[in-house]
Design goal:
By secondary structure, the protein is an alpha/beta fold. It has 18 helices and 14 strands. The strands form three sheets. It has an eight-stranded parallel sheet with strand order 6-7-5-4-3-8-9-10, with helices on both faces. Strands 12-11-13-14 form a four-stranded mixed sheet, covered by helices on one side. Bound molecules: magnesium ion. It comes from Candidatus Aveggerthella stercoripullorum.
């Protein structure tokens, strides 16, 4: 195609897809058969950029500099790595969740904003700063803007220039960021499970509104979901792909696969003296500490069942968990005619991350392809919910709904942190979660109404969990 034609088509694509079209906002994809396609560069915000998913997201961005531009980064407290990433990707809008780091000497010389009551000014400064950001690295550190505290992190989700927010924050802190992202009409690439587990009743209606707006503005793909909420989790990414082109009325079951964790096949007696080091050795996926412990207790699978319920509007009786130790199948969908679609691939989190950013396209990835001749046998088994109580607790919390999943999640976060600090036994994690859930059910589960209500209940559940652990 002649260069002038490419430019004209690019401008059209850019106007349709980009929040802030500029001539540098498009890329030309060339396929193996020599044909090409003009696509908009997606400007991404990475919240939780130094965690496992954040680092792998930046790895994907590094591989596709012509298609992805990182415009903002947020961390909780890993300042050195944040500044390294900002320099490497030429990012000028930064946020640090831990407000006490505002006086840290490493930020001397940077233009600081935010803090309590200054979020508006920070927001404006960030928008202005990032709006001037081209592809080059900042010429001096003075041009970088950094905000502190949870409000500053949430403000990055509203960044005018951003198209997609990757929410890889750990724990309940991610819910507000997800909420702000969708409220701002942006695409949410979601790795933060709590956003849906705790706040699914608030998040999904917002995602439906953004989907609607994307369709109305011609930003949604011609076929398949409009793409406002892209799951990053491998299981949900798999189900998302299996559902494309299908009618939801013909779906009879979702099969969420579980590796079974390092203690698959163990009895309760064998789990009594498990240490953090033993629980941190996950057989297939390389992830952060909290999620690795959750994988070993099957709480992670429980959280994923609740996420699947919200994401795919599927009743709990139609969501099954199957233990599949090889993790080759990332999840499956069964249809009314008995057909089953499965998603397979290498166990590399960069694939589901990349798909969440490339949808509806598929971009090349330098991963080892699955070699079926070397795969051997694939095993499947029912999960042992009597030994791994967390899965049963999560199903109960999901079915009950309302504020019970919020309580379960908060109690689990506290119990896992206590276990990692050797202040709670391994089996004590499920016992703590169950005790706090029981207390909440006795007091009365509420319908989810607001973020503030969830924050209050989350706070209560954490205090209650600490009290339960302290009494043991
Ligand atoms: Mg998963």
């Amino acid at each position: 195609m002649p260069a002038a034609d490419v430019r004209r088509r690019a401008a059209r694509v850019c106007r349709r897809i980009c929040a802030h079209p500029k001539s540098s906002c498009y890329a030309v994809r060339t396929f193996a058969d020599g044909t090409n396609e003009v696509i908009a560069v997606r400007k991404i915000v990475v919240l939780g950029s130094t965690g496992s998913i954040g680092v792998q997201t930046l790895d994907v961005a590094r591989r596709h500099p012509d298609k992805l531009r990182v415009v903002a980064l947020a961390v909780n407290s890993s300042v050195d790595e944040l500044l390294r990433q900002a320099r490497a990707f030429g990012v000028r809008a930064l946020a640090v969740g831990n407000a006490s780091l505002a006086e840290d000497a490493r930020f001397d010389g940077m233009r600081k904003a935010a803090g309590d009551g200054m979020v508006g000014a920070f927001d404006e400064a960030v928008s202005k700063c990032a709006g001037n950001n081209g592809t080059s690295a900042p010429s001096s550190p003075e041009l970088t803007t950094v905000g502190f505290g949870p409000e500053a992190v949430a403000a990055l989700a509203r960044l005018a220039e951003a198209d997609v927010v990757v929410n890889a924050l750990v724990g309940e802190a991610g819910l507000r960021a997800s909420y702000e992202t969708l409220r701002a009409g942006k695409v949410l690439a979601l790795a933060n499970k709590e956003s849906l587990v705790v706040g699914g009743d608030l998040i999904m209606p917002l995602a439906a509104q953004v989907d609607e707006a994307r369709r109305a503005a011609g930003k949604a793909p011609a076929h398949g979901p409009a793409g406002a909420l892209m799951p990053i989790d491998s299981e949900h990414g798999a189900i998302y792909q299996c559902l494309i082109g299908e009618s939801e009325r013909e779906v009879s079951r979702l099969w969420v696969t579980a590796s079974g964790g390092p203690f698959r096949g163990c009895t309760r007696a064998e789990l009594t003296n498990i240490t953090p080091a033993q629980a941190l050795a996950h057989p297939t996926w390389n992830m952060g500490a909290k999620i690795t412990i959750d994988s070993s207790t099957l709480m992670n699978k429980g959280l994923e069942v609740i996420e699947a319920h919200h994401l795919f509007a599927m009743p709990y009786e139609k969501i099954s968990v199957v233990v599949h130790p090889q993790s080759a199948i990332h999840s499956m969908v069964e249809f009314s005619d008995g057909s089953v679609k499965a998603h397979l691939g290498t166990t590399d989190m960069r694939i589901p991350i990349q798909y969440a950013l490339s949808y509806p396209q598929r971009w090349d990835a330098p991963v080892e392809p699955l070699d079926f001749t070397k795969l051997g046998s694939l095993d499947f088994a029912a999960p042992d919910e009597n030994t791994f109580r967390c899965l049963a607790l999560a199903r109960h919390a999901g079915r009950t709904g309302g504020t019970l999943p919020c309580v379960m999640n908060a109690a689990n976060e506290v119990a896992v942190a206590a276990f990692l600090a050797e202040g709670c036994s391994y089996l004590g994690i499920a016992e703590t979660v169950e005790a706090v859930m029981d207390a909440h059910e006795r007091a009365g589960v509420q319908a989810v109404e607001s973020l503030e209500q969830l924050e209050d209940i989350d706070k209560w559940a954490r205090e209650e969990a600490r009290r339960v652990i302290g009494e043991r």
